């Protein structure tokens, strides 16, 4: 994931920016890989601090930081299943399938583009939701380290732009690169055999083949499934009585190409907290203002 200043500001507000940043790698420019295997950088800006951070989602430590706060309790493997508005009861199923109820003041749905909280809200209020599936799908690969070192320059977001499709690679602290192919689903569907896949990669990403490895490309391609990109818009973000609120991807998921999905979701927290302070932490008023 790519963390930018707008996301870092929200993390700084709750005192965990340094911990998160220390678990990331600065990317100061895009490194463009041409078809002839030449490459050239395109800086993100004119100043040294014009950079974004590569954060491995699997080692993201925000939850670990949250768990240190005495007023926060984290319940893992709990699936939201419903909201009883009159009783103010939020229902969940735990890992064993048992129902678990919590009596709460409010529910904030930060649960992604397929939000269960949003579905519950739509049973209570008229929530306008628009979802668009892009023609572009994605599949993740991995560029492993070699001799415990990066095989490419680490402080860059590596991009292989090829008009309709592209490959990108973000550095990780274990010296690997998380590598993602973005392509129209029609192209994914044409690649039916190992030869099809390798001919495609050798034609359009020849240097990446040596980094990922031919066997790994084929194995990953046929053991994975192309995943869709979804844009979500909804309005309003809160129920009329102010006890349910949508934030992050649950309210506004977007394509990842500008690296703003996670960052805008973090920024949502700053906006909400401003509204809470302005309204003396009156949830209904703050949610409405948000």
The radius of gyration over CA amounts to 22 Å
Tally of structural domains: 2
Distance between the termini: 26 Å
The 3D shape can be described as: globular
Proportion of helical residues? 25-40%
Q: Tell me, rounded to a whole number, the average pLDDT.
A: 93
Fold-level CATH name of the largest domain: FAD/NAD(P)-binding domain
The CATH superfamily of the largest domain appears as FAD/NAD(P)-binding domain
Give the C-level CATH assignment of the largest domain: Alpha Beta
Task: Find the count of extended strands (DSSP E, 2+ residues).
Answer: 15
Strands of the biggest beta sheet: in what spatial order?
4-3-11-12-13-10-14
Q: Oligomeric status of the shown chains?
A: single chain
* Unreliable residue runs: none
Structural class: alpha+beta
Element-by-element helix/strand order: EHHEEEEHEEEEHEEEEHHHHEEHHH
Largest sheet, described in full?
7 strands, mixed
Tell me the strand percentage band: 25-35%
Name of the CATH architecture of the largest domain: 3-Layer(bba) Sandwich
Number of helices: 11
